[in-house]
Amino acid sequence: MHPDRQRKIRELFNEYIEMYAARDERLTERFSQNFTGYPGSGSQLIHDREEWIRITRQDFAQVPGRIRIEMLDIALQDLADSVVVATAFFHIHLPSGGDYFSTKVVRLTLVFRREGDDWMIVHCSYSVPYHSTQDGEVFPLHSLQEQNSALQALVAERTQALHDSQALYRLLTEDAQDVLWRTDARLIVTYISPADERLRGFRADEVVGRHVFEMFTEEGVAVVKAMIQRRAQEEASGTPVGFLNFQVQHRCKDGRLIWGEVMSKTDRNAQGEIIGYHGITREITERKRLEEQVRQLAFHDPLTHLANRRLMLEHLDQAMSASKRSHHHGALLFLDLDNFKSLNDTHGHSVGDLLLIEVAERLKACVREADTVARFGGDEFVVLLCELDTQPAEASEQAIAVAEKIRIRLSDLYVLQAAPSGPATGTIEHQCTASIGVAIFRGRDESQSSVIDRADAAMYQAKEDGRNRIRLAPCPVEAG
Prior knowledge:
Elements: H1 3-21, E1 31-38, H2 49-62, E2 68-80, E3 83-93, E4 106-115, E5 118-127, H3 141-165, H4 167-173, E6 179-184, E7 189-192, H5 195-200, H6 218-236, E8 244-251, E9 257-268, E10 274-283, H7 285-299, H8 309-326, E11 330-337, H9 340-347, H10 349-366, E12 372-377, E13 380-385, H11 392-411, E14 414-418, E15 426-430, E16 434-441, H12 448-464, E17 470-472, H13 476-479
Helix pairs in contact: 9-10, 10-11
């Protein structure tokens, strides 16, 4: 990530933390109209911005004095030009409330999106290891007071017994939603809390004594090995390493895969040698789904689910770099539907959308999986072909052959089923063709915009020549 971009995400996060810690009412102005969030005291996803503002004000009213945030770790992600994510782990120190909250690790995920000139918060997720709040509470202060009174009586009676049997340790681990675990230096599991059985379905006796890699997919094992290597390299360079934080898929007993966020730290003997590892694993499957949803919105056309202009430009840049290394040609096909407007004018945009969806499916069926199909907007589509021949004439023939396959397929009759509630109903038949411009490229002899402009100009030439045909753009040298 570019340092300037990283600094911007950190500034957005720091601004949020400062306003939250200061109980600053202006924080409510930072929430987007399209806000969603998980409050720390519940598991229900909130879609109503006003409800989240109410919860925030309830939080501020319950603890009006400034709180202190003790940061443990933070991860910054750059999902798109207009979408960034910050995930942090920290302790909360309240003005009153004893040491209870200062021992709890809180995870906060913030998704920021640029809306106009401002960066707004579109998602906020608090994950805290307590759920005993009562009506009107965000922090369980009342229940904590009741628990403290009961614990004081219990401790006076059974302090020695609790120490002998390690019952206190079990109370702190067995009811936790997060998975607590420990391994030896060889990564053999020596302890795992009951939460793992609730999450993955494996009993503790099925996990203890087994290698930790058995929990993960092959990709997950590679991630863990990379993290261990990274720790060793940083420690060899004299950089102190505390908790390592990473995300990895876990295998479940019923065959499912879930995502877990792992916080891991080494156990060392008096000589400083690693004798094991311990940590916490928290399920983040829903968070990963939301992140993928955000990415889908940022890089794909919402109607056809094809790549959008931004993603196509990224793929074109990658294809030009690959072409420069391999000396193979690539091709960009620019398509425009010939009589799309008449369908919209006659039957309405909802039927037009059905046609665009069908066009997208036909285009995908005409190309290889390695090629890219994108919607540029309206009824304009772009197809990126990679790894064509090294000779320009042969590469042009290959691209023209694909374009002809597309032209014929798109000219087939469209049978569209209109929705009963729309302006048009029943089955609608429509004949639609496409004009296609083809631009061949190799390496980085020209810019992305030049390749696109040549393909676009060839497409307009196809329209001028009568539509429903293909025109090959001249090479840059020939064009000059």
